[in-house]
Design a protein that fits this description.
Blueprint (H helix, E strand, L loop, with lengths): L5 H20 L15 H4 L9 H14 L1 H4 L8 H5 L10 H6 L2 H10 L13 H12 L6
Helix pairs in contact: 3-8, 7-8
């Protein structure tokens, strides 16, 4: 199978196992996180026109609890039975690093377009409702 010498085979095998370990332990590497689900640059730069305030978050929370919590968890952790069974699994909105890497525009675009097991909500929610949802989702790592 390998044409490398003994030490080269060993290094190749170690590299393969290392990369397999990254993907096995970091579902975001293959998932809906910032690196696993690319958003068109222009869409990612769109600014949220809805002020991030308690009223917006309250409206977003109602939508989230009705449509998102079954997969993403009531607290955004993504570790529900449904969320873990998806391919890719539901992301963890409490992951501060992941959430800091995603812009409001990126989250909005993902809610709007959907991908794989994540449905598109373009027709189900108004634009304002989707921005309210962005504000609520961001509250898992940025409470006010």
């Amino acid at each position: 199978m390998f044409k490398e010498s003994g030490p080269q085979k060993l290094l190749t095998l170690i590299l393969i196992l290392f990369l397999a370990g990254i993907f096995a332990t970091d579902p975001m590497a293959l998932s809906h996180g910032p690196k696993g689900w690319k958003v068109p640059a222009k869409d990612g730069k769109v600014k949220n026109p809805v002020p991030d305030n308690p009223e917006s978050r309250k409206r977003g929370k109602k939508i989230y609890e009705d449509k998102c919590a079954s997969c993403h968890g009531s607290r955004g952790h993504g570790k529900t039975e449904m969320g873990k069974s998806l391919n890719p699994p539901a992301p963890d909105f409490t992951d501060r690093h992941m959430m800091e890497e995603m812009t409001d525009g990126e989250i909005f675009w993902k809610i709007t377009t959907g991908k794989g097991p994540m449905p598109s909500y373009k027709k189900e929610f108004t634009e304002k409702e989707r921005w309210d949802l962005v504000n609520y989702i961001k509250s898992f790592t940025n409470p006010k």
